[in-house]
Amino acid sequence: MRILLIEDYTPLRENITESLTQAGYIVDASATGDEGLWYAENGNYDVTILDIMLPEIDGLTILRKLKKFGSKTPVIIISARDSTDHKIEGLDAGANDYLVKPFELKELQARVRAQLRKRYDQANDSATVGDLTVNFNAKRVSRAGEEITLTRREYGLLEYFAYRIGQVVTRQEIWDHVYEDVEGGTSNAVDVYVGYLRKKLNAGDKENLLHTRRGQGYYLEAHAITEPVNS
Same domain, yes or no, for 177 and 202? Predict the structure, then answer.
């Protein structure tokens, strides 16, 4: 899942980036409001983490611009401004959450997970498809009670499918949410990793849960959805 972080204080920005990266997220980090706004307007993010006091453009202005443009990406404000009025101002501007500095990084991670669940209408901290279970908090995957070991990339791919169970996900969406920009994207790279993931999920001749919709993309479901027949 891809996170946008807009924070001008370098030590905090680097610590948050490292923490979220280790947790398996893709993080785009910006130190200025104008650059952060550009990222937000031109990227496809699952959650935005936004400081208020920023150079060039302040965080509340960024937030109001994004909401005016119709952005659906949930926003978590992180700020040293801790009064009730400041919190109300941020939430009324369109923020989904408000976290006062200083804070524990594990709490920020928990709030990110909460926003991801809300965004993708996932009520629980885990998803189940057939006998497959994906635990978002522990980043663990099991099938029929047996744990499956995945690489970071494979888990990130499966997690995105698990948040969108039954929905066809295009290769471009997968690239936007799972891959680093610096890697240079090709649909073949996506296909290759889907193949790796499918092989591990289906080990031991288990029923296939990761299906292909020709010309469209992939989806995670207990049973393949019948494609319409052209007359």
Answer: yes
**CA-closest candidate to residue 45, choices 68, 26, 21, 24:** 26
Do 113 and 132 lie in one domain? The reply is no
pLDDT of residue 181: 62
- What's the pTM value of the predicted model, to 2 decimals? 0.87
The H-or-E segment that residue 218 falls in is strand 217-220
Q: Which domain holds residue 204?
A: 126-220
70 token code pair: 């119709």
Encoded tokens for 231: 């007359």
What pLDDT score was predicted for residue 225?
Answer: 65
Tell me the average pLDDT across 130-143: 93
Q: Contact at 8 Å (CB) between 62 and 50?
A: yes
Q: How far apart are CA 23 and CA 147, in angstroms?
A: 19
Number of domains in the chain: 2
> Among 89, 119, 149, where does a domain finish?
119
Q: Over 60: is that where the pLDDT of 115 sits?
A: yes
Token pair listed for 189: 């790279």
Under 8 Å between Cβ of 200 and 154: yes
| Those residues with Cβ within 8 angstroms of residue 127's Cβ, 6 or more apart along the chain or in another chain | 133, 134, 136, 162, 163, 165
| Least confident stretch, 32-36, 158-162, 214-218 | 214-218
- Residue 109 and residue 41 share a domain: yes
**103 and 32 share one domain:** yes
How long a stretch of residues is the chain?
231
